[in-house]
Amino acid sequence: MWFFILAELLVFAVFFASYAFARSGNVELFNHYQQTLNRDIGAANTVILLTGSLFVVLAVQAIKAGRAVLCRNWLLAGAGMGLLFLILKGIEFADKFAHGISLSTNTFYMFYLSLTFFHFMHVIMGMIILGTVAWKAHTGDYSATQHTGVETGASYWHMVDLVWIVLFPLVYVMR
Amino acid sequence: MKVWLVWLLLVVLTLLTWWAGQAGYHGQWLVLALLASVFIKGHFVIADFMGLRGVAVRWRMLVHGWLVLVLGLILLAYGLGM
């Protein structure tokens, strides 16, 4: 899983660098259209993902203490934060689409839509992983001494969080 | 550091980022401040949330190295655009 996580991080690194270097040739366009983004939703979604990450850390602490039910509940709470993120991001996307904005509108929106949609898919993947790990915690597959699956699933979720920590300031605020 | 305190620090830095955007700040000092903020946030997520604080340096450096690489490339690109 760590190999997979590092590979994912490298893909996002290429995406972020491409955004930043594309911007250096179109500074005014990027600065102008960045102002049309909903920073309130962007910031709220950052806090939501951070809170989800906190819940997942608490899930790992719970299973290390041998408390599988508590671990399952924290994992489900973490996945719930993921769902909240998707709902807010969906509202943000719907607003952009209602204004006729698409990948072909301009270079800024091409990066904004593709980067955030790519991350959106990773949140869904993270929720599937957390859900699967929660189910295995529920069925007694993990214990205080055997919980590698919980830690690995948690690491994937934190990767999704780490990527957004870079994405929000870069795409929504930095100019 | 206690995980709740780490979460609180991350949220405060996020709110400062949001505030900087709302206040209309821009330019080299904002870019540097935001990159520093992302580095601090990324460091705590890697060390305390991912739990890499206690593991071998070579593993921790892989993820920290990713963070430094990304922030360095962004700094370079924004420098070119100024």
Automatic annotation (TrEMBL), chain A:
Q: Name one GO molecular function term.
A: cytochrome-c oxidase activity
Q: Which UniProt keywords apply?
A: Membrane, Transmembrane, Transmembrane helix
Superkingdom as given in the UniProt entry:
Bacteria
Q: Which InterPro entries match?
A: Cyt_c/ubiquinol_Oxase_su3 (IPR024791), Cyt_c_oxidase-like_su3 (IPR000298), Cyt_c_oxidase_su3-like_sf (IPR035973), Cyt_c_oxidase_su3_a-hlx (IPR013833)
What is any one GO biological process for this UniProt entry?
aerobic electron transport chain
Keyword Transmembrane helix attached: yes
Q: How does it sit in the membrane?
A: Multi-pass membrane protein
Domain Heme-copper oxidase subunit III family profile: start-end pairs: 1-175
Cellular compartments annotated: Cell membrane; Membrane
What GO cellular-component annotations does this UniProt entry give? plasma membrane
SUPFAM superfamilies xrefs? Cytochrome c oxidase subunit III-like (SSF81452)
- Where is it chiefly localized? membrane
> Which residue ranges does UniProt annotate as crossing the membrane?
41-62, 74-91, 111-135, 156-174
Q: Which family does it belong to?
A: Belongs to the cytochrome c oxidase subunit 3 family.
What this protein is called in its record is: Nitric oxide reductase NorE protein
UniProtKB/TrEMBL annotation, chain B:
Membrane topology classification: Multi-pass membrane protein
Q: Which UniProt keywords apply?
A: Cell membrane, Membrane, Transmembrane, Transmembrane helix
Asked if the keyword Acyltransferase belongs to this entry, the reply reads: no
Gene Ontology CC terms: plasma membrane
Pfam families per record? COX4_pro
Q: Which residues cross the membrane?
A: 33-50, 62-81
Record has Flavoprotein as a keyword: no
* Superkingdom to which the source organism belongs: Bacteria
Localization: Cell membrane
InterPro entries recorded: Cyt_c_oxidase_su4_prok
What is the name attached to this protein's record? Cytochrome C oxidase subunit IV
Query: What is the scientific name of the source organism?
Result: Thiothrix caldifontis
